[in-house]
Amino acid sequence: MAAQVVDTIERDVLIAARPQRVWDVITETRHMGTWFGMPEPTSADFRPGGWVVFDHEEFGEIPVLIEEIEAPRRFSYWWALVSAGKGTRPEEGNRTLVTFTLTEEGDGTRLRVVESGITAVRAEDAELEARFKDNSEGWTIVTEDLRKRVEEVLSDAG
User: Fewer beta carbons within 10 Å, N or C terminal of the chain?
Assistant: First the structure.
């Protein structure tokens, strides 16, 4: 019997900064690569329907399609399965939705990252299971790196 493919990855982290500061680190191009494990985007159009394009050393060009921006609370984008090929634009059947939600909590911000739609990707179960495993590990690293980057920005500003 095949393993059951899980549709959603969820991570959250409490960051010792106000939502606007966390938002700035998530959405400003000069910060994005520092927590996302890539260089600064080669192009960025931060509006619903706009594209942000990264040039990753290993995976090549990674275009993401902005779905929603509600500053400083919510940011979401679509991206394609890496195995779809370098530079593949996200479209129905090859994409998942990544959503960042920021909620004020005491003197800090609760950041929740959700990647959903894994089971809607047209791929073999083994590939989807690998995507889930890799991205689960990746989002654990990314949320921690993002928390650290916000703290670095705060200490640099202080």
Answer: N
Nearest to 13 by CA among 146, 152, 149, 151: 146
Domain boundaries, the chain: 9-157
- Beta carbons within 10 angstroms of residue 16's beta carbon: 14
Burial of 90 from C-beta contacts in 10 A (0-12 / 13-18 / 19+) = buried
Q: What CA–CA distance (Å, rounded) separates 19 from 123?
A: 37
CATH class of 9-157: alpha beta
Whole-number Å distance between alpha carbons of 7 and 157: 39
Residue 42 has a pLDDT of 87
Cα separation of 67 and 78, whole Å? 7
pTM of the model: 0.92
Say whether 1 sits in a helix, a strand or coil.
Answer: coil
95-133 burial, b if ≥16 CB within 10 A, otherwise e?
A: bbbbbbebeeeeebbbbebbbeebeebebeeeebbebbe
CA Rg value for the chain: 16
Rounded distance, CA 104 to CA 146, Å? 16
